[in-house]
Structure formats: C-alpha cells, structure tokens
C-alpha cells in the first residue's frame, strides 16, 4: 500500500477538504493519504467528507497545533 502526504498547514476551511479531494482523485483505491492541517475544522470536515465519499478514516491525531488524518482511499 502506498503512502502519500498532503500538507494543508495554515490553510483555512474549505481548503483542506478541497485539497484532500483533489489529491484523492489522483490516487488508487487502497492507497493511504496522510493529511496534515492546522485548521481545527479539519477534525470535523475531513471525516464528514470521507463518510460521504466512501473513504476510510483510519486515524486522527493532534500534535500541538497540527492535526494528522490518515485516509484509505475507497472504491469509486
């Protein structure tokens, strides 16, 4: 399984979701994307987007100001 990283630090809503959507559109099912954000809204917005679009949220973690979300790309 490939692992990719997307840096969304210092971006405000809705940009972390928009960038996540654009990156996942170029990925294959089963690949994992790690999103790094600083906008607290990402903790709600990205998991909600994953549910709607059939992607698996594997993990969320907060490290200081940074939020890390690991997403497994679902079937399209």
Description:
With 76 residues, the protein is of the alpha+beta class. It has one domain (3-71): TusA-like domain (Translation Initiation Factor IF3). It is 30% helix and 36% strand. It has two helices and four strands. The protein has a four-stranded mixed β-sheet with strand order 1-2-4-3, with helices on one face. The longest helix is centred in the middle third of the chain and has 12 residues, at 42-53. The mean pLDDT is 95.
Keywords:
Translation Initiation Factor IF3, 76 residues, alpha+beta
Topology:
Elements: E1 3-8, H1 15-25, E2 32-37, H2 42-53, E3 56-63, E4 66-72
Parallel strand pairs: 1-2
Antiparallel strand pairs: 2-4, 3-4
Helix-and-strand structural type: alpha+beta
Biggest sheet overview: 4 strands, mixed
Radius of gyration: 11 Å
Overall mean pLDDT score?
95
Distance between the termini: 17 Å
State the domain count: 1
- Overall, the morphology is globular
Number of helices: 2
- Strand and helix order: EHEHEE
Sequence stretches where pLDDT stays below 50 over 5 or more residues: none
Percent helix, as a range, is: 25-40%
Number of strands: 4
Strand order of the largest sheet: 1-2-4-3
Per CATH, the class reads Alpha Beta
């Amino acid at each position: 399984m490939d692992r990719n990283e997307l840096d969304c630090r210092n971006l405000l809503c809705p940009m972390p979701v928009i960038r996540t959507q654009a990156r996942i559109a170029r990925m294959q099912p089963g690949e994992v994307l790690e999103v790094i954000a600083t906008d607290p809204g990402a903790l709600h917005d990205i998991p909600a987007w994953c549910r709607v679009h059939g992607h698996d949220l594997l993990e969320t973690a907060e490290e200081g100001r940074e939020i890390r979300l690991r997403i497994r790309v679902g079937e399209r």
